[in-house]
Description:
single chain; five-stranded parallel beta sheet; globular
Amino acid sequence: MYSRILSPPKNKSFFLFGPRGTGKTTWVKSAFPKAIFIDLLESEIYNDLLANPQRLETFIPKDFKNWVIIDEVQRVPELLNEIHRLIEKKQYVFVLTGSSARKLRKKGVNLLAGRALTYSFHQLTAIELVKDFNLAHSLKFGQLPCVYTEKDPKAYLESYVETYLREEIQQEGLTRNLSAFSRFLEAASFSQGSVLNTSGVARECAVERKVVENYFSILEDLLIGCRLPVFTKKAKRRMVAHHKFYFFDVGIYRTIRPSGPLDMPEEMEVVAFETLVFQELRAINDYLRLGYELYYWHTSNQVEVDFVLYGNKGLKAFEVKRTSRLQENMLRGLKAFLKDYPSAKAYLIYGGARRLYEGKITILPAQEALLTLPDILKS
């Protein structure tokens, strides 16, 4: 098992949200070895607590002083009222894991009113993989833990996607038209890393635009997709209005994206490279509680910076290029951004092997950038 860099709070209940397969259950069992573990994926426990959430107290010994883990808490949202009561009355501390916040928000249930913090869990990062980090492997299969333990990572990823379609979409009744949602997933994969054209995706899927909007919301609620807003704070230029879209992991994106003789492998490789940097930025920011908001920057005259991080620790801009050969025009977006935001720190991450500098822009090889990302974001 890989050591994870997330540090849990001490003696404070918390939610831990992350997509299926990122290793939440493995981590909480390791981090809290003396905890009581209540798995809501087990049918008997699920049915028991669904019928009567007040039975939760019977799972916990009297005067228990350790952690209580409830896995996949979103399956029984009504439990949160009982958890709230037990925190207040018994001073129990809970770890509440979940792979979706959709039911919790939809039902407007009690989110413990500040009595529990919220943490995010992601796939493995480069610094967690340490010596096992291999850029080519990550660009092909992503960084879910099982792609490093399964004999056939490709088959695992195909099964993962199918499981989400069956278990999360069909069983939870999130959409009545599973075939349309399957078409949508493929169409959405062509939007990876691009300015989102919802109307275009709707035409491709032969469904209404509002349906596609709902589908994108489902992906975000299940934590397997993310829409990235444009950075407009104190904008000096006219900016585009639409979000960019990313599936949360390179391997998931490449599994969903159709490939054949008419597809260009180079294009998929470029998008995979950008996606890998994005997922690393999100994970490090969340794990280290750095507090950045993530954006992209795109002017109406097509000048773009892939990622902008903004928060109390400052303003940082990242451009990502797969090529190992640098050209002057690759710095155009960062130079324009620095002109508008001279206090920002700017980085170009590329496929070459040498660290370089161009004015205020630091040019980093991908391997070095990803392995030193915590230091870059904290500086």
